[in-house]
Every structure is written in structure tokens, then in C-alpha cells.
Write a structure and sequence with these properties.
By secondary structure, the chain is mainly β. The protein contains 1 helix and 7 strands. It is globular, with a radius of gyration of 11 Å.
Length: 76
């Protein structure tokens, strides 16, 4: 089953790519073409699949040393 992942920024949703799954609530993402300023304002993490849509609140966003990446941590 394919999952589509997006981040929500002030009610607008943008596609992102997961580079690495750290745990069930932590991910490293590639956010190009969004800017660093855009992604640092993200407040929701949305996954969609055949089973429906699931929205999580983001608790923290960290810098990653790799270009165009951030670590996203979700609220449990």
C-alpha cells in the first residue's frame, strides 16, 4: 500500500519525501522545492493511503547536516 506524505504549513499541504525513518514518530525529510523558512513553519504531518488520511501535529523540527533536509518529530 503506497503512502503519500505531506507537511501542513498554515493550512496548506505540500508533498515531501522521506529520506530516513528514525522511529514511528521521527523522520528525516527532503523538502525541496520548499524553502528552509517554509519547512520550519510546518505544523502538521499528513499521511494518506487507501485506508484514509492521518494528521499528526509536529512537535519539533531539527537541522540536518545534509542539504535540503530536516528532522521532523511528531507528538505522540
Amino acid at each position: 500500500m503506497e503512502h503519500v506524505t505531506k507537511v501542513g504549513i498554515k493550512g496548506n499541504y505540500y508533498d515531501i519525501s522521506i529520506r530516513e525513518v528514525i522511529s514511528n514518530i521521527a523522520f528525516t525529510i527532503v523538502y525541496n522545492p520548499l524553502t528552509i523558512t517554509d519547512i520550519d513553519q510546518a505544523d502538521e504531518w499528513v499521511t494518506s493511503s487507501a485506508n484514509g488520511k492521518c494528521i499528526h501535529k509536529i512537535s519539533a523540527i531539527e537541522h540536518d547536516t545534509r542539504k535540503n533536509t530536516r528532522r521532523i518529530f511528531l507528538k505522540e
